[in-house]
Design brief:
Elements: H1 4-9, E1 15-17, H2 26-34, E2 39-42, H3 48-61, E3 66-71, H4 77-86, E4 91-95, H5 103-108, E5 112-117, H6 120-129, E6 133-137, E7 143-144, H7 152-162, E8 167-170, H8 176-184, E9 189-192, H9 194-197, H10 206-213, E10 220-223, E11 230-233, H11 236-246, H12 251-258, H13 262-268, H14 292-313
Parallel strand pairs: 1-9, 2-3, 3-4, 4-5, 5-6, 6-8, 8-9
Antiparallel strand pairs: 7-11, 10-11
Helix pairs in contact: 2-3, 3-4, 6-7, 8-14, 11-12
Length: 316
């Protein structure tokens, strides 16, 4: 496969791992890169010294391109960006903030910059900011989400119409057929989170992974809308937040319920009752925890077969 995303990121397949908090460490990032995609480290759950350690370990584990996902609201953002430049990371995915803030400086250092958006309006701002590519993420995705609640199927063609930049689709994509569907709509690559979060190499706790394998349709829901919309598994913590939101709790009251380290408690430490369990809707399709190499092979094989099947589906 060879398109603008593959050329831009110097990868074999246009498949990018989500930079997921408490999941995307060096083992996951290097495994995805070694399998032909682009692995990302999730800086959102790493202190600066931990990020540096994971960058260095990723370099030792792969000679393929990899990147770092950086939420721009990160409290130590300047330190994080300096580490990325010092360690000569070649790709940065940014989210949750203004892409104009860091894009120019990063690109001056020879770094490819990709920004995640949830609307066409913000995609246009990315193009104005000079990013190299855009990720259009629908609200099926796990973790933090756009307030617009626009689905991937609706978002991707609208963003494709709005911008000329290379476009990556995200949200609800876990299979080769899902990958092809978004590319038919105008994407040139996909970012996959949930499927890779439920891999052997993911640093998420095994209790969390096993819980996700048990999910059915409707077992996740967008929550925390007054703070930062987040897709969560319906557990005791979710129901506590839901009850407070239904009672008209303020953002400050919701933040008090969340406290500190809630997502670490759930995803990394495996507290299925009181932890914040972030995962995408597509988890209900996943029934096994496999190594990244096998997952990538399955996705690409299914994608190629789906392409072959397209003439059969043609009308007329």
């Amino acid at each position: 496969m060879n398109n603008r995303i593959c050329s831009l990121l110097n990868i074999k397949y246009p498949v990018i791992a989500g930079g997921m908090v408490w999941c995307s460490g060096w083992k996951l990032a290097s495994a995805v890169s070694n399998a032909g995609g682009l692995g990302l480290l999730g800086a959102g759950s790493m202190y600066p010294d931990v990020l540096r350690e994971h960058i260095q370990k990723t370099k030792k584990a792969t000679d393929k391109p990899f990147g770092v996902n950086v939420p721009l609201l990160y409290p130590d953002i300047e330190t994080i960006m300096n580490i990325i430049m010092e360690e000569d990371v070649k790709v940065v995915f940014t989210s949750a903030g203004n892409p104009k803030t860091w894009t120019k400086l990063l690109k001056a250092e020879g770094i490819r910059v990709v920004h995640v958006v949830s609307s066409s309006k913000f995609a246009l701002k990315c193009e104005e900011a000079g990013v190299d590519a855009v990720v259009a993420e629908g609200f099926e995705a796990g973790g933090h989400n756009g307030r617009e609640e626009t689905t991937t199927l609706t978002l991707v063609p609208q963003v494709r119409k709005a911008i000329t930049l290379p476009l990556i689709a995200a949200g609800g994509i876990a299979t080769g057929r899902g990958m092809l569907a978004t590319m038919v709509l105008g994407a040139e690559g996909v970012q996959i989170g949930t499927r890779f979060a439920l891999s052997i190499e993911s640093s998420a706790h095994n209790f969390f992974k096993q819980k996700c394998l048990e999910l059915n349709e409707g077992d996740t829901m967008l929550s925390l809308k007054k703070v930062s919309p987040t897709r969560l598994i319906k557990n005791d913590f979710f129901r506590q937040v839901e009850e407070a939101e239904n009672a008209g709790a303020s953002a400050e009251e919701i933040l008090a319920i969340i406290g500190r380290g809630r997502s670490k408690l759930g995803i990394f430490e495996g507290d299925l009752k009181d932890g914040e369990l972030e995962i995408g809707q597509v988890a209900s399709l996943i029934k096994d925890i496999s190594p990244i190499k096998a997952i990538m092979e399955e996705i690409i094989t299914e994608y190629k077969q789906a392409v072959k099947d397209l003439p059969i589906l043609a009308l007329g």
